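Example record for the data management plan.
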Amino acid sequence: MDKFKIILILGTPRSGTSKLVSDIEENFNVSSCLETHFIPYFYKYKFLWGDLNKLKNRKKLLEAIYAFLKIWTLFMFSNFAKRTEDIFHENNILITEKYLNEIVSNSNDFSSLIEEMYKKYCEINKTSACIEKSAYFENLDLDFINNVFSDVKVIHYMREPRMVVSSWLKINEISPSSKYEGYKQWSSHFLNYSRWGYENPQKYLNIKFEDMLIDNTKIINKISKFLGLSKVKIKKQSKSSKLLSQFIGHNNINQKHIAARMHEDNITNKMPIFSEFHETHKRAGYCLDESAAINLTFFEKLLYEIRAFLSINNLKRKIKSYLPMLIWLCQILKIIFFINMFLKSGKSKQ
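Corresponding structural encoding:
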C-alpha cells in the first residue's frame, strides 16, 4: 500500500464541498468519511488529558473523541441516518471505535493518535488516502493542520459569496442569522484560508465551485497533479455520492443537476452586498456590482454584531466548540456513563 496521505477539504458550508469530495472519491482510490469537526477543537483542549505519552491518557482522549463524534452525529445527521442507515454507518469514522485499543497502542501523542485513527479507516476501506472534509461556520485557527498531520494536502473550495450567504439564510442549523454576519463569515474564511495557503504553498490548492462546473475534467486533472495521485481507469460510484444522492433527494448526482441548482441561485445576483467586504470579494476573484454595495453606519454594524452574538445559532456553535471540555469534565466527574446512556437512547429512537 502507498504511503498514507490525508486530504483536507476546507470551505464554508453550502459551497459544494460535499460534491467535490464525491468527485475526488470517484476519480481516485481514496476514502472519505462524514464530517467529523473534532480535530481543531480537541487540538485546542488536548492539554486537558495531560501527558499524551502515557497510554491511559491517550485512551481517555480517544474515548472523549468518540463521545464527541456520537453527539455531533446525533445532532447533525440523525434524520439523515434514518434514511440511509447502512451507507451512513459505512461512511462514519466511528467504525474505527472497535479498534480503540489498537489505535491507542500504535500512537504516542496527539498527532499520531489522529493519524492512526484515519489510517485504520483507510485500512478498513482498502485505500491509502483519506479525505477529511469539515465545513465550519466559525473561523478556525489553522495552525493545527501542520501540527497534527505529517503528510497533508489542503484543498480550499470556494463559491461566490452571495450564493453561499443566500443558502445559509435558508437553513436553520447553526448558520449565520443575517446577510451581514454571513458576508463577514465568508470574508474571514477566505482571508484565513488564503493566508494559510500563502504560508504553505506546496500543501495548498484553491479551487472555485464555478470553475468546477465549467470544466470538471480540467479541475480533476489539476487535483491529480496536486495530490500526486493517479486517476482510476474506471470511475466508481463513491459512498459519498450515494450519501449525497439520498441527502438531497435525488438518485443521480451529475453536473447538469448542479448547474441547474446554480441557475436557480442566480436569483441572488441582485442580492445586496456590504461595502466593507467588497475588496475581499474582489481579492477572491468575485467582481460583484459595486453600485449595489451598502454602507453601514457604526450603529447599524453594532446592531448586527449584537444580534449575531445573541442568536441561538451562535450559542449552538459555542456549545460545539466547548464540547471537548464538557466531555473531559464528565470523565473527571465519572459521569461518562450517563453520556453513553443518552447516546444509546438517541440511537434507539432512530
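Summary line stored alongside the record: Confidence is low (pLDDT under 50) at residues 245-254.
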